## 1
Amino acid sequence: MKHHLLSSAAAASLIGSLPLETRSAVPTDEFAEAIAAVEELRAGFTGFQTRAEQQLGGIADITARLDDLETRMNRPGGSGGGDDVTLEHRAFSNFLRLGDNRMDAEEVRALVVGDDTKGGYLAPQEFVAEVVKGLIEISPVRQAARVGSTSAGGVILPKRTGRPTAHWVGEDEERQETGSTYGQLEIPVHEAACYVDVSLRLLEDSAINVDAEVASDLVEEFGRIEGPAFINGDGVKKPEGFMQAAGIQEFNNGHAANIQPDALIKMMYSLPAAYRNSGSWMMNGTTLGIVRTLKDGQGNYLWQPSYQAGQPSTLLGRPVIDAVDMANIAADAFPIAFGDFNRAYRIYDRVQLSILRDPYTQASKGLVRFHARRRVGGGTVLGEALRKLKMAA
């Protein structure tokens, strides 16, 4: 057994500090050993405490470094992600913030020049993808229709113009031709343009992600003009909306002012089952508020709220899409559409997005104006998959 002994002077000092009756009851050597053990434990604890404080200080330093790294990664063009941030993306971010006249030569060379007749630079794929993603989130038609991309000025699709016709024949009778006939349907890609103003203070603040701010504004502006075009566009310099397309069957409501529940049921079941079973209703919020009060002949509401998170409410068992650009209820108007929009309507985005930085037009207001242009096309490819309700007797 290892003994821990104090020096005679230390032991004498400690023992001398005790009361007389305690000193006389405890042998000097045993008392000294106990005191030594306590001192050793105290020294060990002090060393442990010192090491723990050093480790905690190291953790705090790591946390501070991570916070600093996160801040730098969130900055536009920040290289916190190393090779994950492409030169083109970093160059485009600095172009938005500084302009090409204040950028490094390497970054200027990385910018892709857009259409010479319009000026500006093409946005990188990451920026374009963010804008398109935002459009899908806010556009009701994009949520229902089939959306694709193209690099051409138009999309040509095959369209069946004649169905095959079968005939009953005898054992040795000549068979007649029964093949389908096809034509072509072209969806032209139109140009949309807008501009957004960003303050100089926002551009100068290195902690603000200017890419996200500009992308958010572009989404709002492009979404605002796309919605009416996809629904009611006439096809002149804009997509043709499905409510204006030929070949979509109209269904009379039976009343010019009040929506009839029986008309909705009949219109829904007038669609072939292949389209009906995957169909959706589309109407604006005002019409939706009226439809929610409708009941069938047994007093049951046609509208059924969703009781499961993430699932839409339904009308006659099919989901409802709230589209602000659908017509209001009025005589001879078409306030409601129903059908399989994914099969019936196509939207094609031109991949390129061009942005021109204009620091002069709004300079007196402390703003920089960004002019943006993109191209999008839309058209009805299968009118038989849709029905629209007309407010007429």
## 2
Amino acid sequence: MSRPIRTIAAAAAVLLFATATACNSASTGAPDNDGAGKGGSGSVRGVSAGSIKVGGIVSMTTASGYSKKDTDLGAKARYDRANAEGGVNGRKIDYLGAEDDGQDPAKNLAAARKLVQREKVFAVAPMSSVTFSGADFLEQQKVPTFGWGTLPSFCGPKHIYGFNGCLVPMPGGTLNQTWPEGLGKVLGGTKGKSVALLANDNDAGKFGIRTFTQGFRAAGYKVSYAKAVVPATSVPSDWSAYTKEIMRSDGGKAPDVVISVMQTPYNIGLFTTLKRGGFTGVLSDPTDYDPGLLTKDATRQALDGVHVLVQFEPFESDSAGMRKFKEDIRKAAGGKEVPLNMHMVTGYMSADLFLSIAQKAGKDLTVETFQRAAGSFSDTGTLVGDRSEPKGQRESFGCGALVRLKDGKYEVSSPFKCYPPIPFG
């Protein structure tokens, strides 16, 4: 629904940071000595007569200085409202806050261990990081875990849920068409329109190029350029080698659309160079929906006119759900107006999905009753569209919108909508 996530969207592709990281964690995910789902006395771990203990794992700090700390604020806002309304079936949420994994695989696993073995949480919600090496451990311990489903670990395990579904296309699964269809509305149609896609030279970038190429072609676009060639370890100082290729990729002329599936620092350099080179078509990425980016003139100018993919209802919406979200964030921030960003939505909607399933599980809350409730869960009209489990553990809920930065403000360029997915393969 990525980051930076803006590394969320950066859509599914950008956040697919080394699939092997999560898969290889099984060797270090030793079972909890108390037994999966149990506390030291044999009771349900994290559940008392009056409370449910929940923790989070978030990349609050990173080597690049990028932070997802507002994910924690979003979760707190939703839990605060739940508690103000009486809790879940009479139990208040005891939210411990989020552990900082520093975007480090070892710290991610350590955080998961701490929350389960020391803090005895019932659930982890939210989990927001480009590395999820604690996934196998949490699954082994049967810990309901909720976050942005942009990593393979959110797609398939029984106890791990993406707040807007599984965003990683899996063999035999489906592909979310929000991006190509939304841009089609901006362009007045997709037929005959050419698109260039650029990504980092890593596993995530290569996977992104593969999936988005299929999606845009299926929507009727001509994909004139699709490469994962930009170094992932450092932002290039000279983008001309990439932009020259892109500018003549459509039979010697520029494509109609240039799409970056990279993080903000990369997008600033790429888009600035394209504009200076005379590109007048549509620019798009899945990461740069953050009012904090507008505080610097150079950044604001570089991103002006860019259409950003968001996989939730935009902040510019005046729906009842968005008004409630804003009110809850304001209260959690001590009554202050704070700039909204997608990390807040990650925390808020991760908490919201957990709360909704826990409510359905009833007063007798155990991992088993929670899982049974999740197995037939559905609701409609949320900030991420219509939700359904276990569908969401296999595919995206298929909803999203595009927003464009114009004259220093964001505006909706393609309204929030749910699109039929296509088979992935």
## 3
Amino acid sequence: MAQTVADVMTRDLLMVNPETSLQEAIQLLAKNRISGLPVVTQAGDLVGILSEADLMWQVTGAPLPAYIMLLDSVIYLENPSRYSEEVHKALGQTVSEVMSRDQVATIKPDASLKEAAQLMHQKKVTRLPVLDTSGTLVGILTQGDIVRSLAESYQDISADMAG
């Protein structure tokens, strides 16, 4: 029988809210050796994900956008609004200023691990918040969860072959 997301997801979740200080969130990530946190409102609604990648702007700072000068005018070669977002992330002090919020990919608990892996690959994400039918966050599924499940299935096959 194929495993579902509910079979392997992490249920005991650490979460932050948008107003959580970045310092507090960073400490939570480091202390628990995790790479991301779901961001939920006081009402329990998922509004984003804070990942290690989001925090890299804190270290690197935002790059200057490419531009050219023409007759005392600045012409940006890239979208300046993207640069503004990167500066905001580099200077952010709260989770809401740094988190990823653009259509967070989610999955249902009864989805198969195959579906979850395909969604992660397609969306280029390393974790999926798991929402029940009412939209409540009930778990999180990471690539590590899927790999551990795969390792267990290989152990089971090896044990069957040996016995």
## 4
Amino acid sequence: MTTATTTKTALTVSETTLTYLDGTGRLTALNQVNLHVTGGTIAAITGPSGSGKSSLLAVVSTLIRPDSGRITLQTPDDTVDLATLTRREAAALRRSSIGIVFQQPNLIPALTAVEQLVAMSHLGQHLFTSPTRRRETYTKAMELLDAVGLADQHAKRPAQLSGGQRQRVNIARALMNEPSLLVIDEPTSALDTERGAAIIDLILTVARAQNAATLLVTHDRTHLHQMNSVYRMTDGTLTLST
């Protein structure tokens, strides 16, 4: 009798190296990096500025192709080596499977909170979607705004929202396409302690609820005890903290 196996979501970074041209030589941003994060868990990345944290997020998000190594995203439907994708394939995968929360929300000034999410859902799709599809998208956007505590602020534009509210819209937007991989860069850097703690709690809740493998870059060490694993980046080298 054969026992069926269930493929789980996971991100695996194996022996990944990234270098940049620096004058006549090359600067090593990532040096043989190894990392593993399963769905529903959060790996925090700490380290000084310029140590390679943002470079790691960039290669994992398919925004930059590494010089060598494998970056495998495993989902119940497929397993993809992110390091081998073409630009078009990478862009399509970001739309369907990768949620990115930038340090600054980068919301579109003219759009309301709910419109920010709806616009994300329509990226790469035909402009003229059916009325049924538009209603479904709007309903999902409102559900996500409700999940981050902003349903009553759905009609407000970014200038009418606080910094913490804008970051919550940013997180909800990243979840619009139900990503398997969630990549978050310094989400609390512009927030006070109370709002920062609320954002971390929100990230913990949604990452687990969405079963997303999550990478979180942070300088704030007060939240590290809440993470499933903590790594430190130093001069391009990543080590697991104990």
